[in-house]
Amino acid sequence: MAEHGNGDSSSAVVATGEGESGQYAIDNPGLPPHRPRLADVDEKAAKRSERQVSTLFLISIIGTVIFFVGYFAVGRMDAFEDYFEGMSALRVQNTLLGIGSALAMLGIGLGVVHWAKTLMPDHEVVEDRKPLRLEKDREEAEKIVNDVIDETQIKRRPLMRNTLIAAALLAPLPAVVMFRDLDRSEDFGVERMRHSLWSPGVRLVRDPTGTPIRAADVTVGSAMHVIPETLREIPGHGTRLSEKAKAVTLLMRLPMDDFQEPTPGRENWTHEGIIACSKVCTHVGCPVALYERHTHHLLCPCHQSTFDAADEFKVVFGPAGRPLPQLPISVDDEGFLIATSDFTEPVGPTYWERGHTDPEGDYPAS
């Protein structure tokens, strides 16, 4: 341990300002010498970099076009129904939307980065802070802006500038279209969600094969996804998907002894232990798809809302505010499962406005 005495220090560390000349112990080495890049000294290399940047911006433009093809053509044109069946068209559309969005954003990002690394000046600059002078500051700020514009070479390289402008203008359009399409009808709300394709006599069919289901073929403990048989009769891929989103249903068969006492008026909503409910969670609309056969619980994977199938799908855990809507079912003369009515309340999240009487008188006010 170093000892100090009589004002002398035996420390080996030289503090700032100490030393023979009052200098730093280690002199400031300053900025390293600038090493010019190939594009700085070779105009051909600079032109090549310009073409590369412009190509990346063009890729961004192509990505936006791919997005619109997937969004409008695959999703909206009936002609694609001849090539895609069922959910295949949806998968193609989602793939095009994802690839298009990725290319649109990635092209601009990589283009700007490559532009900065190969063409913009890369000198390191140290600038001392200066006292503020209003008029002088304005002139200096104007000079800085002009210097930045000159350094980007955007005036000298119109190909790169024009492709950047085109890509920047097109890239936000997919987001604008998607946000606009969140509500394509003036009457969007509870009335749109009150009714689905289920109606008296409509057969329950397997999703996605469309095979009708005999009650005798449903075993105890089984669960399956079903849709209305009439879903395939609706023209237009987009319309079918919209209706399917409201009509998707889970079908299960429980032992008869496990059911709780039904609410008055619901005694005939099941058939020999076979019961059906909406697949759309009443919390925020996620698909309920996990069935635990021993407890008869249905679990929503998004926020763990849990519903009891043996007790009219009431909430037993989680944030859901009401039970899953139950679909009344029976069998026809051939033994196939059919619906006896539509859902008796709107499907989907609880936050739908449900506080008024249905115009057709089908549902009571909530």
Automatic annotation (TrEMBL):
Its main location: membrane. It is a multi-pass membrane protein. Pfam families: QcrA_N, Rieske. Keywords: 2Fe-2S, Cell membrane, Disulfide bond, Electron transport, Iron, Iron-sulfur, Membrane, Metal-binding, Oxidoreductase, Respiratory chain, Transmembrane, Transmembrane helix, Transport. Residues 269-338 form the Rieske domain. Iron-sulfur subunit of the cytochrome bc1 complex, an essential component of the respiratory electron transport chain required for ATP synthesis. The bc1 complex catalyzes the oxidation of menaquinol and the reduction of cytochrome c in the respiratory chain. The bc1 complex operates through a Q-cycle mechanism that couples electron transfer to generation of the proton gradient that drives ATP synthesis. This is Cytochrome bc1 complex Rieske iron-sulfur subunit. It comes from Nesterenkonia sedimenti. The lineage of its organism: Bacteria, Bacillati, Actinomycetota, Actinomycetes, Micrococcales.
